[in-house]
Design a protein that fits this description.
The structure holds 2 protein chains of 2 kinds.
Chain A lengths: L1 E9 L6 E9 L4 E6 L5 H8 L7 E6 L2 E2 L4 H5 L2 E4 L11 H11 L4 H14 L15 H15 L3 E5 L7 H16 L3 E5 L3 H7 L2 E6 L2 E7 H6 L4 H11 L8
Parallel strand pairs in A: 3-8, 3-9, 6-7, 7-8
Antiparallel strand pairs in A: 1-2, 1-4, 4-5, 9-10
Helix pairs in contact in A: 3-5, 4-5
Chain B lengths: L1 H13 L4 H6 L3 H34 L6 H18 L2 H5 L5 H6 L4 H35 L3 H10 L5 H19 L4 H26 L4 H5 L1 H12 L1 H11 L3 H34 L17 H14 L2 H7 L1 H16 L1 H7 L6 H13 L16 H6 L4 H31 L3 H28 L8 H5 L3 H7 L1 H15 L5 H24 L3 H4 L1
Helix pairs in contact in B: 1-7, 3-7, 4-7, 4-9, 4-13, 7-14, 8-13, 9-10, 9-14, 10-16, 12-13, 13-14, 15-21, 17-19, 17-21, 19-22, 19-25, 21-22, 22-24, 22-25, 22-26
Chain lengths: 245, 528
C-alpha cells in the first residue's frame, strides 16, 4: 500500500531531516510511527503525502511513484497534519463539499457519509458555521470527516488524537480498525504509546532522522517489555532492530 | 507600564521587514527571498529619491523654491495616510498573539502602543525617503538658514503623527463598526470601499473648490501654496517654520501632532478589547441541518473557493479593487468631460484613439488579485498540495477568479468609453482588445511572480497584500508595462498606430501564453 525506500530529506542549513529510511505499510496495517520531537516523523509523513519533495529514495502508493504520478497517488490517500489549518473562511459543510468535489464523490454518497460520520462525531450542527469559529478538536473532527467523505484506501495521519475528546478518540479508533478490516491501511504518528500499543499491529521508531527499530507489535511485546520501555531504550541507546518488512 | 511598553515595542520591532528571520534563519532560500525583497524596496526607494529630487529641482527651477519644504511635508503625509488607512485596522487589531498577550500581565495601552510604534517606524522611513532627497536639493539650491535645518531635524519626528492619526481613526472606525456585524469581513470591505469613494469625492471637491485665475497661474508659488492650504494645512505650518523661521507655527504643528495623535491613540486603547472581542469572538449558531448537497465540476469548486477567500479579506479586496474602480472613474470622467476638450489640449500628432485604450488598460490593471493569490493560501497551502490537484487546476482557478471579478468593471468602463469616444469599427476593435490583453497578461504574470516569491508563513494579511515582493513586482505588471506603450502611442504617427497596437497585443499574447505554460508546469510541492 505504502512503500518508502531509502528516503532521505535534509533541510538546507539545518541538521534536521530524515536519512535512508525504509518502511513498508501493507493493506490491513495500522502502523504507528513514534519518535521524540524533531526526530523526523512529520517530515516522513509529509514526503509520503507528496506535499514535500525529498533528496533521495522512492515512495510508492499502491505501486505508483509519488514523484512520477502524484495525482494518481493522492487519489488513494487522505493526509491530515498535526495542526489542521483548514480554510477558515469556509463553513464546515462548504469545506466538505469542496473536498468531495475534488475527489468526484457523488452528491448522494457525500450526503450519506457526512450525515453518518457527522452525527457520530457530533459535529453536524456546527457544519453551517465558519471554520474560524471551530475549536482545535472540532477542526480535527472536520479534517477526519473530510477524509471519510472520499473513503481513501490509505490514511496518513500526523498526531490524529491530539485535541480530540475521549468519545471522538474512541470513534476514531473504531474507524481505523474498520478501515483496516476492509483492506485499507493507516500510517500515523503519535506520542501516545498506550494507544499505539493497543491499536496498532506494526510500529516504527525513528531517532534523529533514522529508523531505529520497526516490526510487528506482537513480536515486540512478546519479549515481555512494554512499548514505552522499548521506546525509552531505543531513544536512549540507539537502534534495536532494523527490519523494513 | 513603561517597561512593559518598551518590551513589547522591542518584540514588535525585532522582526520589522523580516529582519529577525533573516538574522537567525539557516534556510538559504528564505535568506535569498529576504534579500530579494530588500532589493525591491531599495529599488522603490531609489525611484522615490529620483522622483522627489526631480520634483524639488523642478519647482526651484520654476521659481517656486519656497514651496518645496511644505510640498515635501504634504507628499509624505499623504503617502502615510493613503497607505495606512486600510491597513491600520488589521495591524492594530490583529489576531496574531492577541490571546497570548491577553493572558500576560500587560496593559492594553502597552499592547496598543507597541503596535502603533511599529506603524510609526515604518511611516518614519517613508517620511525620510521623501524628505531627505528633496531637502538635500532644496538646501543645495536655496542655501537656507539654520531654521530650515533645525525644523527638519525636529519636525521629521512629528510629520508621521497627524496622517497616522487620520489613518488610525478611519481604520479603527471601519474595524470597530464591522466587528459588531455577523459578516465582519464583508462589512469591513463595504465600509472600506465606501470610505475610498468618499475620499475620492472629497479630493475632487477640494481641487475644484477654489477659482484659480489666469493671473494666479503665472504665479506658480501662490497656486501651490493655495493647493497646499486646501489639501493639508499642517504642511504649511511646518513649512512656515522651515522657510520663514516662524517658531510659533512650528510649535503649533508639533503641539497639534502630539495632541491629536495622543487623543486618537488613547481612544483606540480604550476600545481595544471591545473591538478585539467583537472581531475574534465566536459567532457560531450550531443549528445546521443536513440538506441536499450539490456536486460541482473541479474548476467551479476551486473558483468558488477562490472567491470566498477573496471576499473574506477586506484588505485584499480594497487593495486590488482600486484598479477596476479607477478604470470606471477614468472612463466615466472621459464621458462626462467629453473628448473634445481633451483633444484640443493635446498636440495634433497624438492619436487619442490609440492612447486611451492603453491608458485605460494601465489604470485597470493597477493591481491584480493573482499576484498575491498563492501567498494568501498561507498556512492552508498544505490542503491544495495534499489533494489530487495539478498546478494547472489550482492556478486556473486563481486566474479565472481574477478575470471574472474584473469583468463587470471592464464591461461598464467599455460602455462609458464607447459612448465617450464613439469609435469606428477598427477603433472599437482595439478599444476592446488592448485592455483585455493587458488584463490577461497581468493576471498570468502576477501568478508567475507569486510562484517565485511566495510568502506563506505570515501572521497578518497586510504583509502579503501590501508589503510583499510579489505584490510590488507582480501586481503592477500591467500598469508598468502601459507606460512605455503609452509613450510609443504618443510617438508613433497615426497612420502606423495599428502596427504598434497589433505588435503590443501579439507580443503580450505570446508572452502570456509562454508564462501560462511555465506556470502550469511549476513544481508546487518542491518549490513553494
Amino acid at each position: 500500500m505504502l512503500r518508502i525506500e531509502h528516503l532521505t530529506k535534509h533541510y538546507k542549513g539545518s541538521s534536521k531531516g530524515v536519512t535512508d529510511l525504509s518502511l513498508h505499510i501493507a493493506p490491513g496495517d495500522i502502523y504507528a510511527f513514534i519518535g521524540h520531537n524533531g526526530a523526523g516523523k512529520t517530515t516522513t509523513l509529509k514526503c509520503a503525502a507528496g506535499i514535500q519533495d525529498f533528496d533521495a529514495g522512492t515512495i510508492q502508493v499502491g505501486g505508483l511513484d509519488i514523484q512520477k504520478a502524484p495525482l494518481e497517488c493522492k487519489r488513494q490517500f487522505a493526509y491530515i497534519p498535526d495542526n489542521p489549518d483548514l480554510y477558515e473562511y469556509l463553513t464546515g459543510i462548504q469545506y466538505l463539499n469542496f473536498v468531495a468535489d475534488v475527489f468526484r464523490v457523488g452528491a448522494r454518497e457525500r450526503e450519506e457519509r457526512i450525515r453518518e460520520y457527522g452525527d457520530r462525531f457530533e459535529i453536524t450542527a456546527s457544519l453551517g458555521d465558519l471554520i474560524s469559529t471551530y475549536s482545535h478538536g472540532m477542526k480535527q473532527k472536520l479534517a477526519l470527516l473530510s477524509a471519510l467523505v472520499h473513503q481513501p484506501r490509505l490514511w496518513i495521519l500526523d498526531e490524529p488524537f491530539v485535541g480530540l475528546d475521549p468519545k471522538a478518540a474512541v470513534i476514531l479508533k473504531e474507524i481505523m480498525r474498520s478501515v483496516c478490516a476492509g483492506g485499507g491501511a493507516i500510517f500515523f504518528s503519535t506520542h501516545v504509546l498506550d494507544v499505539a500499543e493497543r491499536l496498532c499491529n506494526k510500529v516504527a521508531i525513528i531517532r534523529d532522522g533514522a529508523l531505529a527499530a520497526c516490526g510487528n507489535m506482537e513480536d515486540i511485546l512478546r519479549q515481555g517489555q512494554s512499548l514505552e520501555s522499548i521506546f525509552m531504550e531505543v531513544v536512549d541507546h540507539g537502534g534495536a532492530d532494523r527490519n523494513a518488512d | 507600564m513603561a517597561a512593559q511598553t518598551g518590551t513589547l515595542i522591542r518584540l514588535e520591532l525585532c522582526n520589522i521587514f523580516g529582519w529577525n528571520v533573516f538574522r537567525f534563519s539557516r534556510d538559504k532560500k528564505a535568506k535569498r527571498k529576504a534579500v530579494m525583497l530588500m532589493a525591491v524596496w531599495i529599488w522603490l526607494l531609489a525611484m522615490m529619491v529620483f522622483y522627489v529630487g526631480g520634483l524639488s529641482y523642478g519647482l526651484i527651477w520654476l521659481g517656486a523654491g519656497e514651496v518645496v519644504p511644505p510640498y515635501l511635508f504634504m507628499i509624505s503625509s499623504l503617502l502615510i495616510f493613503i497607505f495606512g488607512m486600510f491597513k491600520a485596522g488589521s495591524v492594530i487589531f490583529r489576531k496574531g498573539g492577541y490571546d497570548m498577550l491577553c493572558a500576560l500581565p500587560v496593559s492594553r495601552t502597552a499592547v496598543v502602543l507597541s503596535r502603533l510604534a511599529r506603524m510609526y517606524v515604518e511611516n518614519l522611513l517613508i517620511v525620510l525617503a521623501v524628505l531627505l532627497p528633496g531637502a538635500a536639493v532644496y538646501a543645495w539650491s536655496e542655501r537656507p538658514g539654520p531654521a530650515f535645518f533645525l525644523t527638519l531635524i525636529l519636525g521629521v519626528w512629528f510629520v508621521p503623527m497627524l496622517p497616522m492619526a487620520g489613518a488610525i481613526l478611519i481604520g479603527a472606525l471601519i474595524t470597530g463598526l464591522s466587528s459588531r456585524m455577523r459578516h465582519k469581513s464583508l462589512a469591513a470591505t463595504g465600509l472600506s470601499i465606501m470610505t475610498m469613494f468618499a475620499i475620492l469625492y472629497c479630493s475632487m471637491r477640494i481641487s475644484v473648490l477654489g477659482d484659480i485665475s489666469p493671473e494666479m497661474l503665472k504665479e506658480l508659488t501662490s497656486v501651490i501654496t493655495d493647493l497646499l492650504g486646501r489639501v493639508y494645512p499642517p504642511a504649511m505650518w511646518l513649512g512656515a517654520a522651515a522657510v520663514q523661521g516662524d517658531l510659533h507655527q512650528g510649535l503649533f504643528f508639533i503641539g497639534a501632532s502630539l495632541g491629536i495623535f495622543g487623543t486618537v491613540s488613547a481612544g483606540v486603547s480604550f476600545f481595544f478589547h471591545q473591538i478585539c472581542r467583537g472581531l475574534f469572538g465566536n459567532s457560531a449558531r450550531h443549528d445546521y441541518r443536513m440538506g441536499r448537497l450539490k456536486e460541482d465540476s473541479l474548476l467551479v469548486s476551486l473558483c468558488r473557493r477562490e472567491f470566498r477567500r477573496y471576499f473574506s479579506s477586506s484588505v485584499y479586496v480594497t487593495n486590488t479593487i482600486m484598479g477596476p474602480v479607477m478604470g470606471c472613474i477614468f472612463s466615466g470622467a472621459l464621458l462626462a468631460v467629453g473628448t473634445d476638450t481633451l483633444t484640443a489640449s493635446l498636440p495634433a500628432s497624438i492619436d487619442l484613439a490609440s492612447l486611451v485604450p492603453i491608458m485605460f488598460a494601465g489604470i485597470f490593471c493597477m493591481m491584480t488579485t493573482t499576484a498575491t493569490s498563492v501567498s494568501m493560501e498561507g498556512k492552508n497551502w498544505w490542503i491544495a498540495k495534499s489533494l489530487p490537484l495539478s498546478a494547472k487546476n489550482i492556478l486556473d482557478a486563481k486566474l479565472l477568479m481574477n478575470l471574472l471579478l474584473f469583468l463587470p468593471f471592464y464591461l461598464l468602463s467599455q460602455i462609458f468609453l464607447i459612448l465617450a469616444l464613439k469609435p469606428g469599427a477598427e477603433e472599437l476593435f482595439w478599444l476592446l482588445l488592448i485592455p483585455a490583453v493587458f488584463l490577461l497578461f497581468s493576471c498570468v504574470y502576477g501568478i508567475t511572480v507569486n510562484l517565485h516569491f511566495p510568502v506563506l508563513n505570515w501572521e497578518n494579511e497586510v504583509s502579503v497584500v501590501k508589503q510583499s515582493a510579489s505584490c510590488v513586482l507582480g501586481g503592477m505588471g500591467g500598469f508598468l508595462l502601459a507606460i512605455p506603450c503609452a509613450v510609443g502611442a504618443v510617438l508613433v504617427p497615426k497612420e502606423h498606430a495599428w502596427l504598434l497596437k497589433g505588435g503590443i497585443c501579439l507580443g503580450l499574447l505570446l508572452i502570456t501564453g509562454f508564462l501560462y505554460r511555465k506556470n502550469n508546469r511549476f513544481d508546487l510541492c518542491g518549490r513553494v
